[in-house]
Amino acid sequence: MSPVGLHRVLEPAGVLPQGAWRLDASPAVAPNEVRIRVERLNLDAASFRQLWEKHGGDGARIRAEVLEIIAARGKMQNPVTGSGGMLIGTVEEAGRRSPLGLRVGDRVATLVSLTLTPLAVADGLARWDGRSAQVPCDGHAILFARSIAAVLPGDLHPELSLAALDVCGAPALTARVVERYVAGREGAAGQVSVAVIGGAGKSGSLSLAAARRAGAARTVGVVPVAGERDALAAAGLADAVVLADARDPVALSTAVTSALGVPADVTVVCVDAPGCEHGAVLATADGGTVVFFSMATSFAAAALGAEGLAADVTMLVGNGYAPGHAEFALDLVRGEPGVRRLFEARLAAD
Amino acid sequence: MSPVGLHRVLEPAGVLPQGAWRLDASPAVAPNEVRIRVERLNLDAASFRQLWEKHGGDGARIRAEVLEIIAARGKMQNPVTGSGGMLIGTVEEAGRRSPLGLRVGDRVATLVSLTLTPLAVADGLARWDGRSAQVPCDGHAILFARSIAAVLPGDLHPELSLAALDVCGAPALTARVVERYVAGREGAAGQVSVAVIGGAGKSGSLSLAAARRAGAARTVGVVPVAGERDALAAAGLADAVVLADARDPVALSTAVTSALGVPADVTVVCVDAPGCEHGAVLATADGGTVVFFSMATSFAAAALGAEGLAADVTMLVGNGYAPGHAEFALDLVRGEPGVRRLFEARLAAD
To answer: Which of A117, A297, A328, B83 is most buried by a 10 A CB count?
Structure first.
């Protein structure tokens, strides 16, 4: 059985589950699969917005279309936006060769997209009014050997865990990159400096905490408005907090360089706005690394920007997966009061 | 004086030269600048195509618009496509603090885009018929401290040098990444394997040669058609050459893994087609690196694809600049007969 679920693809043949039109969502699990009893779907924001607008906010029609999609495709992938979401549920059966380490009864959140997760609904989504992206649901879903699911910890509120798990790739990769710089230096030259653009957000605050744990000597969080500046400063997650428009390369690089005293060894971009590439490159020291986590990043702008600035920087596409990423993010929420306060304030405001 | 040329930006104030509407192209050089006597402009293909289509192939009108753009903007940046090109010329004056190492009389090609290069035309482009992207031109251009220009070597045909310089970032970064893997291993585990997708093209063939020089134990070049397979096999640059559609993730990863015996430690994507991200990720071993050089790369497809496959791979945005990149590429063209044959065949076909 394919670890990436090729055996579940019905049409077109030979593509990956994410690219497939239709998956086989039958409940019997292969030896390397896991079946989840689904308790809630969290629809991707873009997907729910499209459905909402198409149906003018008519919950019954939105529900009917979601049911239709899942029945037709064997997964919840909005055919217009292409996006999915994630789900919460309980492990119902784990194949004996599943490498995921899950046990029957574990309450889990999937960290791979619904766009590639076989799914069947059993209750007609009867408990959902169709007017929220949070969908109470009885049904089942299948995880492959290379799927990812995180056990929801008993000591954290599920909403808090989910908020952290949603962005858990960012702190994991930030820590890995910063550790490499710290390991590569000695003595005074070992002072590794890190800038996080969008430092007050979910991925940003976790990345700041991760950078410090990884041994960064000096960190700066860049934020766009005074309210975020005050919140991040109060959280105590960065050595400096500065205001700058990340889309203005000169302003951004000046702000970072002034706050750190030098350009950053590692710059982490967590701002979901287009046009931050050149500023991030310019804020980074020669030999440094820029990690792009924003989905608004333009590949061409990053590549051509660095070339145009003759900047010898390594630029990473932020991978949402790294081994241990879920546990690391949850541990930061547990152990860093500043991170927790920012997350709780954000959840309260939602 | 700003090393990235901020002092040459006339409007809007405060942006980088690439983002500016208008630059100051006056000929007097600052201590860290260099003035080039221009001999030819190579317009970017997308820019020339737009001009050609707009004016229905009328050379006189195309020439008039290029003159207008340069006069209005102080640089040759097509306002519709946003793209520029590069130029060839001779160093006329080098400021005493220029770090570029150029001497008066050096014949150079600029490796930074015309979109950020101050430029003035002196001859009204009188020798250009407006019907080719190669523009004979008398005029001057300014290089900043962080611009890049390569001295054209006397022992290679200028067209051959230009073709190599155009993609010289790819072999430099490939070598750097492969060297890191080679250095990090020992003994039998030290067998580093490299896949180059689009291995018969300019950047692909240079990357294959670079990977081998950097110590790769086994390399595979993936190509889309039989003609390229035969040409690349004859060039002897890869241990294996295989046919596969890089947009088909399963086909691509199967082809690479079969040819190498294992997934690649380093996968280099040089195919200018959209949709190659998932296949490249799937073809790469856990702990491996994918280097994306194709401008058709989708940032989101790469990021979400790796996450959806739970692939612990490092993904790099191919930076067109690295120290020594021009010399390294020219040296590969000189020293690797297979690279040279592929380049010469390509130039002959153009």
So the answer is: A117
